[in-house]
Design a protein that fits this description.
Elements lengths: L1 E2 L6 E2 L7 H20 L27 H7 L4 H15 L12 H22 L3 H19 L4 H4 L1 E5 L13 E4 L6 E2 L6 E2 L4 H13 L20
Antiparallel strand pairs: 1-2, 3-4, 5-6
Helix pairs in contact: 1-4, 1-5, 3-4
């Protein structure tokens, strides 16, 4: 029995994505054109203040937010979508469609439509379904975080990756967050709890792991409050 490449749940029919993750991936794909459109109001900084000197040809243009410009450009959202369509066509030994004169928005809609058409094959037959679904989810989520950022109090403060390890020495690595009003930091994946007395040591371990300077640790050497990943 395979595991879903996105949520790791068992997939009884031997496919590579579970039914729920297929549905979610389709929804993420379908949302990309609207998210692309939703970025347009964020392209120019609030206030539209002009900066710099005017050239002989007239006043300077409005500044733009480069991150938004990149996402809406040829190498942004549409680049990610077309990259996956190319990989899938190659794996399925399919010729590319006839060239068409389309702008970025038209190319994005065409690419999304093609990927949606591939979804039955992706879910059942493609070993790279997990990385594909993960990438599409992260792309959609990253755009939503710009268009409709969540309340920081709701999201919680990001601390870093969980340093708890299992008996074989594998580090958990899930993202730890501290939520206002809570007296402990709990890993959402391995459920290890870190009370306030351990936070200084926890920060040290997180910093070491992120810099790649940590030494090999065993469960017995973990700071008080950390726990191995449940097997």
């Amino acid at each position: 029995m395979n595991q879903c490449g996105l949520c790791q749940a068992p997939v009884e029919d031997g496919g590579y994505l579970c039914v729920g993750c297929v549905s979610c991936t389709r929804a993420h794909l379908e949302s990309l054109p609207a998210l692309y459109d939703g970025l347009l109001p964020f392209l120019t900084p609030a206030g539209g203040a002009r900066e710099g000197r005017a050239g002989k040809g007239g006043p300077p243009g409005l500044p733009v937010v480069e991150e938004i410009l990149d996402l809406r450009g040829p190498g942004g959202i549409v680049g990610a979508v077309e990259g996956w369509t190319s990989v899938i066509r190659a794996d399925r030994r399919m010729a590319p469609p006839p060239a068409a004169e389309l702008g970025v928005e038209g190319r994005l809609r065409a690419g999304v439509a093609e990927l949606l058409g591939h979804m039955p094959w992706i879910a059942v037959s493609w070993p790279d379904a997990g990385p594909f679904a993960t990438d599409i989810k992260q792309l959609a989520d990253s755009i939503r975080s710009i268009i409709d950022p969540r309340d920081p109090a709701e999201l919680g403060k990001r601390l870093g990756k969980c340093p708890a390890i299992d008996p074989s020495g594998v580090i958990c690595g899930a993202i730890l967050r501290h939520y206002p009003g809570t007296t402990s930091v709990t890993c959402p994946w391995c459920q290890c709890a870190f009370p306030p007395a351990t936070w200084a040591d926890l920060k040290t371990l997180i910093d070491e792991d992120e810099k790649g300077t940590h030494s090999v640790r065993t469960p017995d050497e973990e700071t008080e409050g950390a726990c191995p990943i449940a097997s």
